[in-house]
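debug: dumping io for the single-chain case to check the tokenizer round-trip. Nothing else runs in this session.
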Amino acid sequence: MSAPAQPVVHEVNTAVWLRGLSTDLGRPVTLADVPGEVWDAIARPGVDAVWLMGVWERSTAGLALVDPDTRRSFRAALPDLRAEDVIGSPYCVRRYEVDARFGGRAALAQARAALARRGVLLVLDHVPNHVAPDHPWTGEDPDLFVRGDHHDLAEDPAAWLAVSDVVVARGRDPYFPPWPDVVQLNAFATAARRATARTLSDIAAQCDAIRCDMAMLPRNDVFARTWGTRTGPTPDTDFWPDVLTEVRARHPDTLMIAEAYWDLESALHGQGFDLCYDKRLYDRVTGLDPGGVRDHLRADLAFQSRLLRFLENHDEPRAASRLPREAIPAAAVTLATLPGGTLWHEGQFEGRRVRTPVFLDRAPDEPADTDLAAWHHHLLSTAPGVRTGTWQLLDVDGWPDNRTADNLLSWSWTAPGARHLVVVNLSAAASQGRVPLPWPDLRGRSVRFRDLLDHRAFDREGDELSSDGLFVALPPWGHHVLSVD
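debug: decoded output
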């Protein structure tokens, strides 16, 4: 099953989800015996792929190294925390084998088949930068890692770790202190690249798409900046072209998704990734910056079409904790109707406010905003019909005594037999403007606009639209998703 060009991905925290199902059903639930109606709920209309985040075996050795501040975050999110709620980080991977508590590899295959029957792809994780300290590689081949010595360990124990009789670096990126619970792979080592390619190929055999955590860290330039001379000379070829060439030879149809920051999205596209996170848009939308969003959307369309847009994920605060309740639909319409892929986080639709640390398999009880959930479900089922054909950003015009037009964002989609117009007020102020329409054939015709979300309809004359544009007046956080007939 091939991936669509603009996939809609629903991220599910596997451990939290399955434990919640087990509690609700009064029996242990693995990936092999999830009820059909539950699969229907997470693979609902409009969803193209389900990301089962965190299926791999977690490390108890890594969990023992977690720092006190991180442990305090567990109780902050879950005030009635119990010891059994803490199962370790899914990004401290002990082995790339499906965790036994989730049913193992065979259960994952059944989950993939259940999604495939619904026409939905399966997304899984890979962490290229580091593994758990008790990963088999640390004993089998320590040269896969950034190596140190006991002097390094004595000088900076927060940056180094003794594994058996070998000192290896703790995983890190160049801008933050090391992560205490993981050890650093050497992206310059040929053997590490081959091992990564084998691991990715095995993952690709079990899913349809792979999301690579912090994919910019193994790039030659970033890795050299992080580790200096400790890892030897920079290889002639970069990490991802070297690794993905081998993976693509075995699994050419696997969709590769990069978690990417630092404006390296285009570079990672060029090195073999199909989609990259759009963190810049996230910052501007959740920062309620319509001008910044508009400027961001002036980027080349081919580049934008390969971005993955989101309002939250497991690494970011919940959208409902950052945005006013009334602003959430405006932000969601913005994301859902742009070119590129979109990522939606489990609980986002229902307005959950607490971000559950990935170390836990239980989330706090929160009341679901059922109206918001129903609205999101309607948006997701509507958006695929809107995002067809050619996309075009439209500048909304104001007039001398009206500066509110700057709050309005607008774009069109044009396909044979289908035209759509989106207008969003990304502000807390009532705003007005005129939207110049991109269709020159409106003169002499009547035009009906129908809002696909609230089903209102209104008629305008094409002559006025052609000369003056469409006048819009939106309340705070208002939006239109219009079919144009």
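debug: round-trip ok. The chain has a mean pLDDT of 96.
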